[in-house]
Amino acid sequence: xxxxxxxxxxxxxxxxxxxxxxxxxxxxxxxxxxxxxxxxxxxxxxxxxxxxxxxxxxxxxxxxxxxxxxxxxxxxxxxxxxxxxxxxxxxxxxxxxxxxxxxxxxxxxxxxxxxxxxxxxxxxxxxxxxxxxxxxxxxxxxxxxxxxxxxxxxxxxxxxxxxxxxxxxxxxxxxxxxxxxxxxxxxxxxxxxxxxxxxxxxxxxxxxxxxxxxxxxxxxxxxxxxxxxxxxxxxxxxxxxxxxxxxxxxxxxxxxxxxxxxxxx
Length: 265
Hints:
By secondary structure, the chain is α+β, with helices and mostly antiparallel strands. The chain has a single domain (55-264), classed as Fumarylacetoacetate hydrolase, domain 2 (Alpha-Beta Complex), CATH 3.90.850. Helices cover 26% and strands 32% of the residues. The chain has helices at 3-19, 35-53, 66-72, 125-129, 152-161, 211-222, and strands spanning 56-62, 78-83, 87-89, 92-94, 102-112, 132-143, 166-171, 187-192, 195-201, 232-243, 249-254, 258-264. Helix 1 crosses helix 2 and helix 2 packs across helix 5 (152-161). The protein is globular and about 50 Å long.
């Protein structure tokens, strides 16, 4: 089987599971051989989803802590694609029936005012900061579709191919004077039904919320791709995934960046 055929068939298998709200799994013959192949499958898969959910409008990052990376034998974060129709704004309402298992994360969101193209690589935090228009609190919307009992590393690379379970984002109000903030020490938290379910700090995400943005710009440059002005990037979990159900209300707060709210019906 040629690589192109394998990538196409794996993406089609994931698309079928996506459309039927099934858990993600791939036959052994379609399993990515490495992360590079997982990203090829991811992009092919999302190219089909985008026909219904709009063009690529941003990216998400995951596995941004050393502990999570060590658990699956990698030394870098991983990325996923966000599509135009899934960029939402607070306050927002989500239908639980649209997902297999809806979960939320608390993250720092970034909107770009200028491009970060492959020609500009390598990037560091200072360089990508110049391209940032605004920051905001962001709920990552996660559709948890892990197959129970699957080997951890198999589950990880399948998840990368399946776009790290991203189902979009709910953004709070943009903050343009973010350069005045101490983002490393900024405190963030999430409440569900007025009960706090998790908290953390900006430094929990690779030491600073904009370090993942630099990593992303460099990783995309390796693939001959870039980030465009107006794109939204969510930079990794300050609060990891929390499952929500119909009737729940949730809010997040990040010090200096404000809050965002949503409800589930």
